[in-house]
Design goal:
alpha/beta, eight-stranded parallel β-sheet, 16 helices, 26% helix
């Protein structure tokens, strides 16, 4: 177990860079590592002290780099090995840690391991993957469905067996029961640690263990497929796989940061995965933090592809549970956005009338709680969703099936587009908005993903505006580093549903964070808030504090702090 003093990540503020969408320097419409290097000073000025990069390894790019064909090489679209080495070096000069995405569950079909495995059952690499015979009647091995649709089984080009793929057919799952797979992954991790990488995000690690014997699941209709994702997650052997991996990496770099993607876990499982006693992950990211009101959704269609409002009551309960249970380990991962979900200001805020206040309120609410902030590129500008006009442009798993089924049920094209543009992961991957030029300063040609060109919401414009979302984010992250917000206790007040208010206490210092999660003015009476004892540390526009009453503008946010050791000037944005 690692000495607590070695855990630099306990005070980390992580900036997520989706390299394809951050900055293009060679004019091909795709971001690259030179573009990341170009903006390291910007990331540092924001207040981040760590950068997580989505995959940059060599890949056919069937799934934007999550289909790795060579873990030891940089994909040419991003640059060369020298660019990765320079990025690590330049980041470290600025006190920035570097976290790489490590894809553990699968490789590309173009990976040499799989190419060797295709040579037949006697090849040493055959057992690197999962194979099964057809059923005696010639049917597929079982009735499991992949996350991207269709069966999880794909017949090998030459031969009679099927290989297993939880994701796309071009991404065969690795067999973690084979100790040689684990050893190979450890070797990959050590290679990058030797290059200076400070941590890894373990992609989809909760799926590494597979259900024994691959039994078919009961269905109502013959030929129906059942989600293999739900069947093959959080199974017992994952603990052994991850313990062995992380223990080996920590022998090389004791303070390596291990971030686990654990999309479906609750707080109790998060504790099991991140408890230092278990020697697995340091922090996990779950997608279960944002419960929605499903009552408005059509039960005949997948819920995850239908837009709905946040269930604020359930959200509060969830956040309190995560704060309480993860508190002994430094708190949970705090995030609103990542590359796999629609952007938060479009999803939870109000972009037509209150985009600035919405963005600032969301930052205040989330990041001053206990835990580690994870900020997706452009979030600090108030970047909203892209809008696709063609429903066939969406590459989100399930989007095509959702479109077809919605059409069959009689939904209009306009309605289906609205749903997909509200929920699909594609809409979060727009090019970074550096300025108001034709391609937002991202590239000299049209970005691969699309881009929102906006006069107001870009780096160049917001740098000049002291009231901008960017300026506000910088102050929030500056205050986040105060001990009361890193180490203080957390308590959520009981308030009406539209308010989210909590206190952080450390010694004699007490901070109160009050956020309005609605588009109407709200009032909160808080006994003891008087001018001589309390002051406003930071707030967004339109709020007022009168004696013991806080009047919140639509999507208003106010942070109050006792005068002890606090800055002397109120920050209003």
């Amino acid at each position: 177990m690692v000495d607590q003093q070695l855990k630099w990540w306990k005070e980390a503020i992580v900036y997520q860079v989706y390299p394809r969408s951050f900055q293009d320097t060679d004019g091909n419409g795709i971001g690259d590592l030179a573009g990341v290097i170009q903006h390291l000073d910007y990331i540092q000025r924001l207040g981040a002290n760590a950068i997580w990069l989505n995959p940059i390894f060599q890949s056919p790019q069937v799934d934007n780099g999550y289909d790795v064909s060579d873990y030891y090489a940089i994909d040419p679209i991003f640059g060369k090995m020298e660019d990765a080495e320079k990025l690590i070096e330049e980041a470290h000069k600025r006190g920035l840690k570097i976290i790489f995405d490590l894809v553990l569950n699968h490789t590309s079909i173009e990976h040499p391991w799989f190419q060797e495995a295709l040579k037949g059952p006697d090849n040493p690499h055959r057992d690197f993957y999962i194979w099964h015979d057809a059923q005696p009647n010639g049917d597929l091995p079982n009735n499991w469905a992949s996350i991207f649709g269709g069966s999880v089984w794909e017949k090998e080009p030459v031969g009679n067996q099927y290989y297993f793929h939880l994701f796309k057919k071009e991404m065969p799952d690795l067999n973690w029961d084979n100790p040689n797979v684990a050893k190979a992954m450890v070797d990959i991790g050590k290679f990058w640690l030797d290059k200076g990488v400070d941590g890894f995000r373990l992609d989809a690690f909760i799926h590494l263990d597979k259900l024994d014997d691959f039994p078919s699941e009961p269905t109502l209709r013959d030929g129906e497929l059942v989600s293999a994702q739900l069947i093959n997650e959080n199974l017992p052997n994952i603990k052994n796989y991850i313990q062995d991996l992380t223990s080996a990496l920590r022998t090389v770099k004791p303070d390596v940061f291990i971030l686990g993607e654990a999309a479906s876990v609750d707080a109790d499982l998060a504790v099991a995965y991140s408890d230092p006693q278990n020697d697995m992950c340091d922090v996990v990211i779950s997608f279960m933090l944002f419960p929605e009101d499903h009552s408005v959704k059509d039960p005949r269609l997948p819920f995850n592809m239908q837009h709905a409002i946040l269930d604020k009551k359930a959200f509060k309960k969830t956040m309190v549970e995560w704060q309480k249970k993860l508190d002994p380990f430094g708190g949970p991962a705090l995030y609103w956005n990542n590359h796999d979900m629609a952007r938060a200001v479009s999803r939870f805020g109000e972009v037509e009338n209150y985009r600035e206040n919405s963005s600032k309120m969301l930052a205040t609410l989330m990041y001053l709680q206990k835990g580690i902030p994870f900020i997706l590129y452009g979030e600090e500008l108030g970047m909203q969703n892209l809008y696709h006009t063609n429903p066939h442009d969406f590459e989100t798993p399930g989007a095509a099936a959702f479109y077809a089924k919605s059409k069959a049920l009689g939904y209009t094209e306009e309605h289906i587009l609205m749903e997909l543009n509200s929920t699909a992961r594609d809409v979060s991957r727009g090019a970074m908005q550096w300025d108001a030029s034709e391609y937002a300063g991202f590239s000299s040609m049209a970005p691969w993903s699309g881009v929102n060109r906006e006069e107001k919401f870009n780096v160049a414009a917001e740098e000049k505006n002291p009231d901008s979302i960017l300026a506000y984010y910088r102050k929030v992250l500056e205050y986040k580093k105060m001990p009361v917000f890193t180490e203080g206790t957390f308590h959520l007040f009981e308030t009406k549903e539209s308010l989210y208010s909590y206190e952080r206490v450390l010694g004699d210092q007490r901070a109160i964070v009050i956020c309005n999660f609605s588009d109407t003015e709200e009032r909160l009476q808080e006994d003891g808030i008087v001018e001589k004892e309390w002051r406003v540390l930071i707030q967004n526009k339109g709020n007022d504090v009168e004696n013991n009453c806080v009047i919140l503008a639509p999507y208003g946010a106010v942070v109050l702090l006792k005068e002890t050791d606090s800055p002397k000037k109120e920050q209003v944005f």
